[in-house]
Design goal:
The protein is of the alpha+beta class. It has helices spanning 10-24, 93-99; strands at residues 31-36, 39-45, 59-61.
Length: 103
């Protein structure tokens, strides 16, 4: 039987989740967010990324995020191969370029 890890707080759990994800996607910036009503908050980052300027604690209006396209009812992820080529993101192109988000 596997031993179950007990966490004392959110930070310990978040660190383990991000470490696991980094094992699968080692060179990617990964982050945990929460969505409440019309806002998205960055909770935790896997690391500081040289080109993408987001920080823990930042709050964004959902209408200004890529996550606004998530279909929560169907519980399916969204995937953008290239944000600059995706017609759904026309209104966000300038912001995505500034943040250097490409996919």
């Amino acid at each position: 039987m596997q031993e179950m890890t007990l966490y004392r707080n959110f930070d310990e759990l978040a660190d383990d989740v991000l470490e696991l994800a980094k094992g699968i996607l080692p060179d990617q910036l990964l982050y945990l967010t929460t969505i409440e009503e019309d806002q998205l908050m960055i909770l935790r980052l896997s690391n500081n990324h040289r080109r993408i300027e987001i920080r823990a604690g930042q709050v964004f209006e959902m209408e200004q995020t890529l996550c606004r396209h998530i279909n929560f009812e169907q519980n399916e992820p969204i995937w953008y191969e290239s944000v600059s080529d995706d017609e759904r993101l026309e209104d966000m192109q300038d912001t995505l370029k500034v943040l250097q988000i490409e996919s």
